[in-house]
């Protein structure tokens, strides 16, 4: 089975790892977990039906301190270490699985994200890596918020409506690739 992906160019790696330095419309929250959670609760609690969270640790923080967002995207790893997600899955009514190789955005995951976005309390579990799926969400969401963690730095809150043109610009730099079973 072949897989169609959009591969991130190496030139974007550093920029995407520090988006809060390049985009003044993003909200960057840093500090102890409880402080970050309180800040996120203050900012987003009344908008949970418009919040989309990417990352296992960030999703778990939301569930523990804030509430169930409209969508969480996880991969079963925190900082590349396996993470048991069984306690997370019970919060969601809909669970989707997809495959997303590191450093890319797969069409498989794009399709699952589109399916999940039409529902509430959805969970997308990416086999591979979920990090870049926040960018895919920014492409397909007409409005709302995306929240994702920057390991050992903090959490970024994106108001999708204010970052659409930058997202399209970033995504246009990705290259289309077809992976065969031998290259997976």
UniProtKB/TrEMBL annotation:
The protein's job, in short, is: Catalyzes the GTP-dependent phosphorylation of the 3'-hydroxyl group of dephosphocoenzyme A to form coenzyme A (CoA).
What Enzyme Commission number does this protein have? 2.7.1.237
Q: In which pathway does it act?
A: Cofactor biosynthesis; coenzyme A biosynthesis
One BP term from GO: coenzyme A biosynthetic process
Q: Which Pfam families does the record associate with it?
A: DUF359
The chemistry this enzyme catalyses reads: 3'-dephospho-CoA + GTP = GDP + CoA + H(+)
Native organism is Ignisphaera aggregans
- UniProt protein name: GTP-dependent dephospho-CoA kinase
Query: Binding of GTP: at which residues?
Result: 56, 75, 130
InterPro entries (alphabetical): GTP-dep_dephospho-CoA_kin (IPR007164)
Q: Which GO terms describe its molecular function?
A: GTP binding; kinase activity
Q: Which family does it belong to?
A: Belongs to the GTP-dependent DPCK family.
